[in-house]
Amino acid sequence: MSEVNANARLILNLDFGEDVDPDERARQTRKLRDELQGLIIEWVDPLRSGSVPHGAKAVETVALGVLALAVLPVFVPKLIEFLQSWVNRAEYRRIKVKTQVGDCSIELEYAQEELSSKDIKRLVSTLTEAMAGR
Fold first, then answer.
1. pLDDT tens across 40-60, in order?
2. Largest CA distance in the chain
């Protein structure tokens, strides 16, 4: 499989604002995961925490407000467009998208008040080109 057709693995860090309690954060994260599954995405799951505290039962723990997903690079613009729409649905939402392409780590952060549509298009283009190995 060529790099252009390889899935891009992304990490989404969701910020719902300071006043959102852990239960609501978990509910909103699940809701976003369900919405993402309706898009052209290979898979989307909550990100699992790496370590279990000493003395705790060895149960898989989930990082609140963090999703991992895989998508073909060609669909990244649609994904970013959807995430931009999701951020704009409620006040105080922010999202950080991270990916690793070879030695290069790419991070895109979006909040309602910070980026214009032109900025988003430029960042999506940079992200997509990096994933395609250009």
1. 788 888 876 654 444 444 334
2. 50
At 5 the pLDDT is 56
Quickly tell me which residue has 């989930």 as its tokens. Answer: 62
Residue with tokens 């993402």: 36
d(CA 29, CA 92): 15
Tokens for 4, please give them: 């252009």
Question: What structural domains and CATH numbers belong to the chain?
Answer: 3-52+60-131 (3.30.70)
Q: How far is the C-alpha of 132 from the C-alpha of 99, rounded, in Å? A: 13
pTM value > 0.90: no
Contacts of 134 (CB under 8 A, 6+ apart): none
Give residue-wise pLDDT tens across range 70-109: 988 888 888 888 988 888 888 888 888 888 877 778 787 8
For the chain, give percent helix, strand, coil, nearest 5: 35, 30, 35
Nearest CA among 70, 8, 3 for reference residue 39: 70
